[in-house]
Amino acid sequence: MTLLPRAARLALMATLDIALHARARPVSSRQLAARYDLPPRRLESLLQALVRAGVLRSLRGPLGGYELARERRRLTLAEITQVALRAEAEEEGRDAVEKRLDGVLEEIEAELYARLERISLDDLAARAARIGYGATEDAGGDFAI
Length: 145
What we know:
Elements: H1 6-21, H2 29-36, H3 40-52, E1 56-59, E2 65-68, H4 77-92, H5 96-117, H6 121-130
Antiparallel strand pairs: 1-2
Helix pairs in contact: 1-3, 1-4, 1-6, 2-3, 3-4
């Protein structure tokens, strides 16, 4: 069972992937779509919503793509999730069931977002690295001299 809607999970996956892979150069939406077998059009609209919210930065050109707009430690999972949910609501609209549940689930959602607010993208990246998520042959090292 998953508590977060697909749009939120997709946004978290995309930002985590970009956090892990965009160190040498930006990650293209085509790379993301291929890596996770996603429809490029759906992914692109979500990535653009993340750009408008200041989570990602879009770089144009043949070597363009997406990179984080801020440090990983300054991006919370709550912020990323809320951007995705707003984008999904704008795209699809809300039905009567969702509107009626708003008041009922408000307290539970507040607790969930409070927890997500305490977890940064950096925390998520560290957890992912511990289980080997994002390790690829083309991942360059992160060196400082």
